[in-house]
Amino acid sequence: MIRYSTVDSKNKREIVLLKSSPCIWGKCSFCDYIDDNDLDINKNIYLNKTILKNVTGKYNSLEVINSGSCFELPKETLTDIKYVSTSKNIKKLFFESHWLYRNRLHEFKSLFNIPIIFKCGIESFDNDFRNTFLNKGAIFSSPQEVAKYFKSICLLVGIKGQTKDIIKRDIEYLLKYFEYGCVNVFIENSTNIKRDENLVNWFYENFSFLQNERNIEVLWNNTDFGVG
Prior knowledge:
It comes from Clostridium tyrobutyricum DIVETGP. This is Elp3/MiaA/NifB-like radical SAM core domain-containing protein. By secondary structure, the chain is an alpha/beta fold. It has one domain (about 5-220): Aldolase class I (TIM Barrel, Alpha-Beta Barrel). The protein is built from seven helices and eight strands, in the order ββαβαβαβααβαβαβ. It has helices at about 40-50, 75-85, 105-110, 125-135, 145, 165-175, 195-205; strands at about 5, 15-20, 60-65, 90-95, 115-125, 150-155, 180-185, 215-220. Helix 6 links the parallel strand 6 and strand 7 (about 180-185). The longest helix is centred in the last third of the chain and has 14 residues, at about 165-175. The protein is globular and about 45 Å long.
């Protein structure tokens, strides 16, 4: 497992994949990423310390990801991240959070006292596809409601059961309402969810222009950020 890397193209930053307690939701039908979490808090703290030692501050920007939400990282790890941010002159942080934590984002803003971009895995704005098929556990009424809390969202494309119209609308909302975004092309894993190759090819033919958008990142493979 690679747990430190750098993103050297858009939004240049260092990125670390840390270990945390289990995801607050942990029921998404497409996700086996949660297998990376661990109930052994001390083990997580020790491993995270070793990973954070790799941070150099070369881009003054750091993204922290884990198999769940940033709120599930140990408190000691948050202290370590704050120390690294100060000592390495980090001026911007990226964290991931489930929709269920949307009313607690201010806690991190107060703790770190530097700009934070919170990313939320929305996956799709189609409520039935998101919550019935993907079982995401994110209930909201509109993209505007999501944008009140999160500057960045993650979308998922290329799944059997998804439609072209769903993807078109999701990309439209991403470009219209959010400052940042990440589009993940689905890679089959240990779950029962299947990839739709025809849909992936269609997405590539019609939305490759997203790769030229300044703050939109397209992950054709789930390890394109260099960690995982």
